[in-house]
Every structure is written in C-alpha cells, then in structure tokens.
C-alpha cells in the first residue's frame, strides 16, 4: 500500500503553478476514462447535464450547514453583487432531487449546504471538486460560512480560521482508506484569511478575529458539554479542557473545518472558513440566545464574505448593478432587508 | 481522567432491568438539575414545550438519512397502522425551524431524518435520547432505515445489521472526549434483528439477510471507490480490500451504524439497522440504477419495519384501522399507493 503514502502529499505551490489555465485538476486518473460521472448526492451528472455551460462561470463556492442559511445567502449575495435574474424567474435549488444537499447559483457564486459533521462535508467536497473539474471552472475559491462555539469570545464574534485542528489538536484530518489510516494537512489559505480580516470594518458593532479552530465529531461529549445524554466528566474537567484549548490558541469549536481544509488543500483550491460564535463556551453549554439575535449573528460571516466577493469582482471590473463598484459594504442594513424578503418566501 | 474509563462501560442486562418502569434514564446527572434543556437541533425545549404530552406515547423511533425518505415513511406507516389524523389536519415537520433535522409523528411512531455520517447522527441521538427522557417514553425501540452499498449482494437486497464495524473492523465506535480517545461497543439487539428477519416473506421478490455492516467516514476513498475527486489506489487494491471485508462477514457499507449502535446500547435502548443495497460494490462504484427502481428499493426496508411495528402493536391490541390486526403485510402494493400520494404533495 506504499502508493497511498507516496502520493498522499498535498500539492506544492510549484505543482499548482503548473496548472497555468487555473482549472481544477483531479488527482484521480479514473474519472476522465469514465463514460459518465454521476454526482449522486448533487443530483447531477457529466452526461445528463452540460456542467460546463451550467457552472463554467463559477468563481466562489460558498458552503454552510443548513439549506436555509445557504438559500438566505443566495438572496443576500444576489443583491450585494447586483445580479439580476431574468424577468419571471426565481432561484431554484439545483440539487433538490438529491434530497441531501441544497445548491443555489447566483452568477459566479455557488451557495451549497453541506450538512453537519466531517463525513457529510467529505461527500460534498468530492462531488464539488469533481463538479469544478467537469465544469472547467477557473481558480474557484471555496469558503465555508458556519456557526461555532467561541472560547473566550462573546456570542456574535466573527472568527476566521487560521488553522483547523482535530480532536488531538493536530493540524490535519485523519482518513481511513482501504483500512489504512493516513493524515492530510488541514491547511487553509493564510493570505485569504488576512484579506478577509482586512475587510472587517471599524464600524462593525462586533469583533472579527483570526484564530485556531477545533473540529470535533460530536457536539456534546466531543466538545466537553455537560448537557448531552451522557456525561462522565465534571465541570472542572470541562473547564480545564477548554482552558487547555485556549492556551493552544483555539478560539472556536465546530464540526467541519478539518475535512474542508484538508480536501481543498489536497485539490490545490484556495479556501477559508468564517464562522460566527453562537455562545462563549467558557460561560455555558446551551445555545439559548433569542432567535432574532441569532439570526442577526448568522448574517455577520455572510456580510464579510460578501465584502470579499464584491472586492474581487470589482478588481476584475465584473461588479455590476445598483451599488456601484466600491468593493466594500459599510452597512449591514441591506442584509436585513434581503433576509426579510427571503423569509417572506417561506 | 479515570472517571471516563471507569464509567464508560455499557449497561448490563441486570442494570437495565433495574429500570422497571421502562422509561429512558440519562447517564448524565446534570440534566435534571437544569432549569430548562434546549434541544437546539430539534427546535424543542423542556420548558418551551410539554414534551411528555407531545411525545409520551412514542414506542418506535425510526430514523433515516433524508427528510424526504422520513416524510414518505410517515405517510406510509400512517396507512399501515391505520392511524387517522383529525379531520382538517396534516402531518407537520415538528423540527422544521431547526433547519437541520425533520421529524414527523404518527401516533406511537416518530420518523426523524439524521443526515449523513456519524457526527450528524451523534447530535441527533443525544437529543433524541434526552427527548425520550423528558417525554417519559416507555421502552422505545430505535430503528435506522437506510441505504448502503452491498458486498456480494445484488442491488435491492434488504440487509439487517448483525454487528456494526468501524474502518478498522472493530465492533465499536471511537469517541474523543476531552481530548481522550475511548471506544464504546457498537452492539445492536440480536433478538430484534432475528425478529425483523423472520418478518421477511417468502413472497418478497428480493432477499432479506443478516450480516455485518462496515461504517465509514467517507463515501469515496473511505469505501474504496475509484470515482472520487482523489484516488491513490488501483482497482486490484480496491477488490482485495472488498474481498477482505467479505471474508470478515461484511455484507454492506454505510456511514451511520456504529454511532447509532454505540449510543443506543450505551443508553440501554433496543435498536436495529435495516438498509437496502443500492448496488453491489463488487460490480462497480457508481449509483446509477434508474430513479423508479431506486424508489422501489428504498421502500423495502420500510415495508419490513412496518411489518414489525404492526406485529408489536397487534400483540398489544393497539393496532387500529382498516386492515385489521393480522400483524403482517403480505403485499408491497399499498406502499406504492402511499408513496404516490405523498409525492403528489411535492
């Protein structure tokens, strides 16, 4: 099985540079030999659909846990980049008939739900990377827009992941392939993280920080919560654990970042993770902020990512629409308007 | 951290017998001390809802991956047990506002979607077990109704899990709690598995078998598929791996069974996993059976579970409705009718 380890390194910058046309290359020689490639969990296929025509213009792939959040983001980003649907049309969930993930396309922005936990993200990432390949997308950027528990940061804080760590605080994701355990680096693009951080505005009524993110396979025992169906540890055990995380630079805990980082890095795709903290775990375990507050918090990573997308499109002279090409969104007010409109659809 | 290991054994039959009233006990002393318990991912709470009134009569908790499958099952089981909704009412997704899981209640049967992969199931199981506790449900039985890849069995075969194995073929699930790795047995109720098997009819135009189930954290590389975004192994490596699984008694692969078995066993809840194979992995990797065929296949585990629920209710004299109390469903025809009705709602 030495072929596994010998080939399992991630691409160096030199290797990535070789792909001068910017399209996503697959590290799997089998795909191009197949008559058709069914992306089963997306309800798409390389023969049943013209994937290049449908998705060839995608530049940003934004992912988040729930279908609802990604539908909201699709409506929001449509407004932010001034994208207009043809008269008499509305957004449609492209993957509706997979009954698994939801996908909305707004010009160059693809908004996809990934469910909860690394295995669910893993399935989606394999199929999204293959979709980028079939569609011949150029230099797509992948951004996860999530929620998390903060460690020592207040609810509502926006956190950009510097490094994704697994349960043993390793900066990698563990894979079991043909019964063999391997690790792949869970690296994110540090320059992209800094670019995103720079788009935080001093006028934002909340903090936007960069830090390490712990990725767990469970929400209760796995994150040291005292309020699961089972709990064999004490409050002081829990606090000692959270303090240890904090001493290691961990500022938040979620359940998807290592696989998202490991698979994008392995594919040579630039990626970032931006989450909002729903609580400060040093103060408690239950997620109990009022619904309106939580909705406003969940908009914050979306606002930051929208600023980034506007900036990139403006630099390319591709920002159309009513707001001009300033490349920066000062006020979160428009978000609320779009969210309300979107909720009116429910 | 010795408290972790010392307390982490599962309940013996003697211990379970101590709970003579049959209600679900939590192995967490913290919950009863809390003012309220918010079941965040179900959009329910112990103070905001009267959980005993809403769920106290639940006897069967049926889970499956997608919201759609569980909605279909809810309509199907309603017909099968002769359960009638009050005039002018329809089934409603109880957890709709969680935007994460879907939950439908049909008298004593709760139908819940669990998403894909063990972490997603883990979150749900903690909250479902707590729900059973708050609702004071008596002796609930948990059954996962899933899809899988078969090994040496044809697409459409129904497989009842005897033992759930992890990627290293261990009959346990690995947990990381406060940074420490522990294993809990992934045991299912063998008597329940035999009861389910006995409900397969010689008239069924497909096989129903019992065997070991491999649970993986990925659908592509993790299951030895050649058609993911990445593949560092050859077809002969893959076949050697699948043959090794087969030699170990593994008849199918899915992504949820170890956590489902480990957490129900740890809670002293009787549980089973019934899946239908969507393909024979010895013949290929892609899931490409026609949609109509796949829909009919996905009905098969539901038919078996419905026979079981009817049998139990009939034994208790609780089977109402138009079909009488034979406790056995001979024909899958009624399923199709209900499915069609349900699809007409889409």
Spatial extent as radius of gyration of chain A: 20 Å
**Most extensive interface:** A-B, 74 and 74 residues
Question: What summary fits the major beta sheet of chain A?
Answer: 5 strands, mixed, barrel
Q: Total helix count of chain A?
A: 10
Number of strands of chain A: 12
Helix proportion of chain A: 25-40%
Protein name (chains A, B): Nucleoside phosphorylase domain-containing protein
Pfam families (chains A, B): PNP_UDP_1
Family (chains A, B): Belongs to the PNP/UDP phosphorylase family.
GO molecular function (chains A, B): uridine phosphorylase activity
Q: How would you describe this protein?
A:
2 copies of one chain form a homodimer. The first copy, chain A, is of the alpha/beta class. The first copy, chain A, has one domain: Rossmann fold, CATH 3.40.50.1580. The first copy, chain A, contains 10 helices and 12 strands. The first copy, chain A, has helices at residues 2-7, 13-18, 51-55, 67-80, 118-135, 190-198, 235-247, 257-267, 291-315, 333-344, and strands at residues 38-39, 44-45, 60-64, 103-106, 109-113, 141-150, 158-165, 172-177, 180-185, 208-215, 250-254, 270-280. In chain A, the strands form 3 sheets. The first copy, chain A, has a 5-stranded mixed β-barrel, surrounded by 4 helices. Chain A is globular. Chain A starts with a helix and ends with a helix. Residues 1-18, 322-333 and 337-346 of chain A have low confidence and may be disordered. Chains A and B meet through helix 1, helix 4, helix 5, strand 8 and helix 7 of A and helix 1, helix 4, helix 5, strand 8 and helix 7 of B. Chains A, B: One of its GO terms (molecular function) is uridine phosphorylase activity. Chains A, B: Belongs to the PNP/UDP phosphorylase family. Chains A, B: Residues 59-310 form the Nucleoside phosphorylase domain. Chains A, B: It comes from Stomoxys calcitrans (Stable fly).
């Amino acid at each position: 099985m030495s072929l596994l380890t010998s080939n399992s390194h991630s691409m160096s910058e030199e290797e990535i540079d070789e792909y001068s046309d910017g399209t996503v290359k697959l590290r799997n020689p089998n795909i191009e030999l197949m008559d058709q490639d069914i992306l089963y969990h997306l309800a798409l296929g390389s023969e049943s659909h013209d994937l290049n025509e449908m998705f060839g213009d995608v530049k940003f792939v934004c992912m988040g846990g729930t279908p609802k959040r990604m539908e909201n983001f699709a409506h929001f980003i449509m407004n932010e980049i001034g994208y207009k649907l043809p008269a008499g049309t509305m957004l449609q969930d492209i993957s509706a008939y997979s009954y698994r993930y939801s996908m909305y396309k707004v010009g160059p922005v693809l908004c996809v739900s990934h469910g909860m936990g690394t295995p669910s993200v893993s399935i989606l990432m394999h199929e999204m990377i293959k979709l980028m390949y079939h569609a011949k997308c150029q230099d797509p950027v992948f951004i996860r827009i999530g929620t998390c528990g903060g460690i020592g940061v207040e609810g509502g804080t926006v956190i950009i992941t510097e490094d994704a760590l697994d349960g043993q605080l390793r900066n990698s994701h563990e894979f079991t392939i043909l019964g063999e355990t391997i690790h792949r680096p869970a690296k994110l693009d540090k320059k992209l993280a800094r670019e995103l951080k720079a788009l935080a505005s001093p006028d934002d009524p909340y903090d936007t920080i960069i830090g390490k993110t712990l990725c767990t396979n469970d929400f209760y025992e796995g994150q040291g919560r005292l309020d699961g169906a089972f709990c064999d540890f004490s409050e002081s055990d829990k606090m000692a654990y959270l303090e240890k995380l904090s001493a290691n630079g961990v500022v938040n805990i979620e359940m998807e970042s290592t696989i998202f980082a490991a698979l994008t890095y392995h594919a040579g795709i630039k990626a970032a993770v931006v989450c909002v903290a729903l609580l400060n775990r040093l103060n408690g375990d239950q997620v109990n902020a009022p619904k309106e507050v939580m909705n406003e918090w969940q908009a914050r990573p979306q606002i930051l990512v929208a600023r980034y997308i506007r900036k990139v499109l403006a630099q390319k002279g591709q920002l159309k629409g009513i707001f001009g090409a300033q490349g920066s969104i000062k006020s979160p007010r428009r978000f609320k308007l779009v969210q309300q409109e979107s909720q009116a659809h429910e």
